[in-house]
Amino acid sequence: GAVVSQHPSRVICKSGTSVKIECRSLDFQATTMFWYRQFPKQSLMLMATSNEGSKATYEQGVEKDKFLINHASLTLSTLTVTSAHPEDSSFYICSATLTVHEQYFGPGTRLTVT
Amino acid sequence: QKEVEQNSGPLSVPEGAIASLNCTYSDRGSQSFFWYRQYSGKSPELIMSIYSNGDKEDGRFTAQLNKASQYVSLLIRDSQPSDSATYLCAVNAKGGSEKLVFGKGMKLTVNP
Fold this sequence. Notes:
The complex is a heterodimer of chains A (114) and B (112).
Chain A: E1 4-7, E2 10-13, E3 19-25, E4 32-38, E5 45-51, E6 57-58, E7 67-73, E8 76-81, E9 90-99, E10 102-105, E11 109-113
Parallel strand pairs in A: 2-11
Antiparallel strand pairs in A: 1-3, 3-8, 4-5, 4-9, 5-6, 7-8, 9-10, 9-11
Chain B: E1 4-6, E2 11-14, E3 19-25, E4 33-38, E5 45-50, E6 54-58, E7 61-66, E8 71-76, E9 85-92, E10 100-102, E11 106-111
Parallel strand pairs in B: 2-11
Antiparallel strand pairs in B: 1-3, 3-8, 4-5, 4-9, 6-7, 7-8, 9-10, 9-11
């Protein structure tokens, strides 16, 4: 149990375009999902907390208009990177909570902006 | 003081040895403690959770929690080359949030 999927696993896009990443909890309902970003050889950085049916809560320094999060159902959250630039190239990982605090991570999406 | 601290390592042990990974946290009110394993280029994988003082064993892994000392550790017995990864300690954030605070991770290498 506690399987989280992400799609796509890899994406290459041109500068200025938008990219949508999907995060799904496959065998459980997750009221809360989280979005992280990880640069090479660095630790996880929490970007936002996503709750079903309400607006996402963004961490300090994360632009909500650039990283649009939609938590449409108890099993699906999406992150859209708008007007992507090369500095947005990173490993984006979502997680979902099964029980309080226990987070299960998706496999991640590697974004490259050219 | 950082909220969750881990020695950055790296830690190198021979195959078959015990690997010991340590973590300290600053919030005395923390209740949930986790160890994640992250292979290079992959996402973190939950390997242990612990909520009360003492030891919790799962196969070759043992998590130890000492709330009085604000210390949580992970022991890996009979280390295998496949255990080579970065290990992340995580603690629930303050104020009842569902967020986790992660340490920076400790890179473990198990040499054949």
